[in-house]
UniProtKB/TrEMBL annotation:
Pfam name, any one: Dimer_Tnp_hAT
Domain HAT C-terminal dimerisation: 212-292
Lineage, opening ranks: Eukaryota, Metazoa, Chordata, Craniata, Vertebrata
InterPro entries cross-referenced by the UniProt entry: AtLOH3-like, HATC_C_dom, RNaseH-like_sf
Region (Disordered): 113-132
Protein name: HAT C-terminal dimerisation domain-containing protein
Top-level taxon in the UniProt lineage: Eukaryota
GO MF annotation: an example: protein dimerization activity
Length: 333
């Protein structure tokens, strides 16, 4: 299949692989068909159901994931996508929607006919022998499908709560390349969270707009990011005190609140590999290399140790003085 960017392409690729296995299992092509039948036999209703649900839920969340990871991040669009995604997940709780999803789940499994065991021939069977009961759909809907939706909704509401969305919209209002640049409603809501003086901020925003217009008319390029805007305001930070403070917060908050950064850190992967492969021999070898490296540095730069302990260069090893003891009194000779 055509390669797709992002880890979410895993789910449709897996569905295509399952469909290929079903086709291969229905053929008579020797060992390949036998292996395919063995794999298909391991797929139960719950496995395929979870696969279909993950494909649907994560597929809908893919647009939000991509825009949040985009270098040219538009926080206003991200907030709109979050609200739209929450509404979509809420509508998925409708029973009529799940009925269509259930047909999509049952379709791959219905092709595999369940055969009754020969050991049951001639016996009276009082329970199900492979035929799915009518309660399976209701159980799957309440225990699995709703649980996945509730988890996604809970995480979206937690990560994109009203204060967080106000901060995102406020940061976007400080971006000169945004359509909502200097929008008072978003900017003042952001300022109130950090207890800024909105009256002073209103006058500062008005004056800052006039300064930017004059700079553009004089041939200076308009700033395209919050960092460039902060550099322009910095010489006038005593005048634009509240605005300069908000710009500094907007620059720092995106980095300081990246809670998942460590999960994707390359340095973290390297350290994890080193820790998992560390044993006594490796640790001993690394210790020897470290000691020999330090010894080599001290030999090449003898003054380095003296810079750390200046008096060390004046230390001279001397033999102990001769002593003479008489009447329990010792004298140095």
């Amino acid at each position: 299949p055509k390669e797709e960017s992002g880890g979410l392409s895993f789910w449709p690729d897996t569905l295509q692989a399952l469909q290929g296995l079903n086709r291969l299992a229905s053929e008579n092509s020797g060992d390949r068909s036998i292996d395919a039948r063995g794999l298909v036999a391991q797929f139960d209703l719950q496995f395929i159901g979870l696969l279909v649900i993950c494909n649907k839920v994560f597929g809908d969340a893919r647009c939000l994931s991509e825009i949040l990871q985009s270098p040219s991040l538009d926080l206003c669009s991200a907030v709109d996508l979050v609200q739209a995604l929450v509404q979509s997940f809420q509508t998925y709780r409708d029973e009529s929607y799940f009925e269509g999803l259930w047909r999509e789940i049952v379709e791959p499994t219905s092709k595999r006919k369940t055969k009754q065991s020969r050991r049951l021939d001639g016996h009276t069977v009082m329970s199900s022998t492979g035929e799915r009961s009518k309660q399976t759909m209701e159980t799957f809907r309440t225990r699995i499908f709703y649980a996945v939706l509730d988890t996604m909704l809970s995480e979206l509401n937690r990560r994109f709560a009203k204060p967080n969305c106000e901060i995102m919209l406020g940061i976007q209002a400080l971006n000169p390349s945004s359509n909502t640049f200097c929008q008072e409603e978003a900017l003042f809501a952001f300022a109130s969270i950090y207890e800024c003086n909105t009256d002073d901020l209103k006058h500062e925003v008005y004056q800052m707009k006039r300064i930017l217009e004059r700079k553009v008319k004089s041939g200076i390029q308009k700033p395209s990011s919050i960092v460039e805007l902060t550099k322009i305001i910095e010489p006038f930070k005593e005048v634009f005190h509240e605005l300069f403070r908000l710009c500094k917060i907007a620059i720092a908050i995106l980095v300081s609140t990246a809670s998942c950064e460590r999960s994707f850190s390359t340095l973290k992967l390297i350290k994890t590999h080193l820790r998992s492969t560390m044993d006594d021999d490796r640790l001993s070898s690394l210790g020897i290399l470290s000691v020999e490296h330090l010894d080599l540095v001290l030999k090449l730069q003898p003054s380095l140790f003296g810079n750390v302990i200046p008096s060390s260069e004046k230390l001279i090893l001397q033999s102990p003085p001769n002593t003479h003891c008489e009447d329990d009194v010792c004298y140095c000779v």
